User: Fold this.
Amino acid sequence: MNKGKKIKVLCVVGARPNFIKVAPLMEELKKYRQIKPILVHTGQHYDFEMSESFFKDLNIPKPDYNLEVGSGLHGAQTGKIIIEFEKVCLKEKPQLVIVVGDVNSTLAGALVAAKLHIPVAHIEAGLRSRDMTMPEEINRILTDHISDFLFVTEPAGVKNLLKENISKEKIYLVGDIMIDCLTNLKAKIQNSTILKKLKLKRKGYAVLTLHRPANVDDKKVFSKLISAFEEIQKKIKIVYPIHPRTKKQIEKFGFRWRFQRMKNFILIPPIGYIEMIKLVRESKFLMTDSGGLQEESTFLRVPCLTLRKNTERPITVEVGTNIVVGTNKNKILKKVNKILSGCGKRGKAPKYWDGKTAKRIVKILQPLFFSPK
Ligand code: UD1
Assistant:
């Protein structure tokens, strides 16, 4: 195939969790002299703290293209990416497009490639929350059904795909590529001074992240969650790096005063990858509605309370440190008390969450690329 010519592999990223998945992949692709990796940033996330700081922390090369689509309604945002990304594909004519995760950029990238008959690889395939009100669930299902290589993080993902009649020849259980980042950057994480900066003591605080539309776009749900935090911060400090969408919602609902009057609640702007992992690693526990952090906390053996009705990552509950607690205040408080009394889940790392997932993925794709350097 393509003798003498480099194989063009186009990798698509758009939002914060994508950057963490593409960093180890770019690093691995670089090792193959036959490959020309091309990085396309859709621009779904664009603030320095949401994008550039991750490129710096994770050593991701500058994108070859930035589509600069920005924020917008789902249709408009996805549509803009499709229009702009199709132009890139037509110009570059890649032999493979790789998409990661479950954000709007993931689906848009896969759709363009599939329609142009370019093979698509999806990293983090097969995850299902069975909650079609989540935009991510729609993105996951559609992306998987138009992809040719499905790289899965955990066994439940394989089962989900087989149940949806996806051919088993396309499915590969390779582990979690985000863990590659964690292991690659271990030393830098260790050296982070974030605890000192925020005057925190090891295991003397909890970390919170919250940004899902189901939690912060619904005033009642959001209010209930805040009243849970009001109680929890009386017992332990809460550190909350706030997502821009949540910040907007706090202003919209007039909740700012509720955060301001909490004495033990530290609200900070979004932070970079290295600082965030250090913060979680040294915390007593994590409360989150993020997908990736459920996995990272399992790997770091930090108890995690997932503030959602469901998880698409069941292995974090089955073998990890995660408890899906929902948004009921009493239930949350009960679980927090259990952790504070020293009975938090300890868990262990799932199979293949070993820092070698990118290697496994590129090896599987090798027939497209010939042999390594
Ligand atoms: C997106 C993903 C979500 C992921 C999250 C991680 C989809 C459907 N959702 O959600 O799965 O967990 O990223 O962060 O793709 N904003 C800024 N600056 C930015 C980015 C966003 O101010 O750099 C604000 C804008 O007001 C924007 C809002 O945040 O409207 C939401 O951004 P968007 O990219 O639509 O979705 P996220 O909530 O970030």
